[in-house]
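== Protein entry: sequence and backbone fold ==
=== Local backbone shapes as whole numbers ===
==== Amino acids and backbone structure tokens ====
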Amino acid sequence: TSSPMLSAVQPSGPVTAWAVVTQAEDMVQLRNCISVLFAFERKPIADEVFVQHLRAWTERLVAILLRVATLNDHLFLLNHILRCPAGVARWATAFVQILPPQSIQQQGSVLHPTGVLVSYSHYCQPLMDLFVTILATLLQPISKREEFLS
């Protein structure tokens, strides 16, 4: 990759959930690539080799995204997964990551890989908000799912 930020990410590093909204060009391109891969996942494809390559690329890019992910990126992935056809649980369950709330119980500021300074306090529990949002998303009917699958 030509992105210094993304090329430094270790795919086996810890999953993150930054409480920041970033529109850094690298992140936008990464999300766009993942969206294209999921668009192919929603289509019926008979070529098993193509499907294997598609899932391998999806896994690689999602692994990188999860290492620099914001809270919105976790919802981005969840919504893509929920709009896939049946059988997605066999290969995409690891893409949904729920981080424990104690991950950010300290007060202070941390620098996101894109250069944005993120401040946390004891009164701000964005991971708990993410957990509740994911739970609500899973329990509600998926809007326009059939439209995505057609």
Remarks:
- The chain has a mean pLDDT of 80.
- DSSP finds seven helices and two strands in the chain.
- The helical segments are 4-7, 25-41, 48-67, 71-82, 89-92, 126-139, 145-149.
- The CA atoms of residues 83 and 145 lie 5 Å apart.
